[in-house]
Amino acid sequence: MWEQVPADSGQVVVVYGEGPDSAESVVVLYQKRGSLWERTASWPGHNGRLGWTTDHHMDDEHSPVGVFTLTDAGGSLEDPGSRLRYWQDDNAFASMLAPGEVHDHDFDYVIAIDYNRVSGVPPFDWSRPDGVERGGGIWLHMDHGDGTSACVTVPESGMKTLLRVLDPARRPVVVMGDRQHLES
Fold first, then answer.
1. Could you give the C-alpha distances from 29 to 2, 10, 13, 87, 94, in angstroms and in order?
2. In terms of Cα–Cα distance, which of 151, 160, 171, 146 is closest to 15?
3. Alpha-carbon distance 83 to 164, whole Å?
4. Which DSSP string corresponds to 126-169?
5. DSSP type of residue 61
6. What's residue 104's pLDDT?
7. Model-level pTM greater than 0.70?
8. Mind listing the pLDDT tens digit for each residue in 104-159?
9. 51 CB contacts (<8 Å, ≥6 apart)?
10. 3-class DSSP state of 103
């Protein structure tokens, strides 16, 4: 997977899934210092309830394996100092949850993963260039302690760090998948 990281990228968020069918993962931030990659932070995380797939479809409860750009962020809370373009809209994010849902803070902060989405628009924009059946709306967002529909979760401290550190000038990407895919 590292071979797929664009040469001009200076920041990589790697999501190491525990296994192909596991919802457990570790999220690691790497930053390029000169010609070397330095591990600068890591957090426990979660991914799709049913693990990983190289053929993601809407509602399959798997996270897609691959390398994707990170260009846009947002949330129901005010911008904590994001370097990525940030859209704060409590109503847009709240409408994605049922009232009183146990995961009602998931979207306090999100970073859109550019899988089947148009970059440069709010994370809650539902345009799907490859069609709705290919899924989309996949984000890094606040952790709730278990697997997701397809997103990757990070604890609040990690989300704030990522929002403050990821710099569009450094062309950040996420590399994600189970360890077998990432290490092959």
1. 14, 11, 5, 23, 28
2. 151
3. 6
4. ---TT-GGG----EEEE--SS-BSS-EEE-HHHHHHHHHH--GG
5. -
6. 65
7. yes
8. 688 999 999 999 999 999 999 989 999 999 999 999 999 999 999 999 999 999 99
9. 17, 19, 20, 21, 22, 23, 62, 63, 178
10. coil
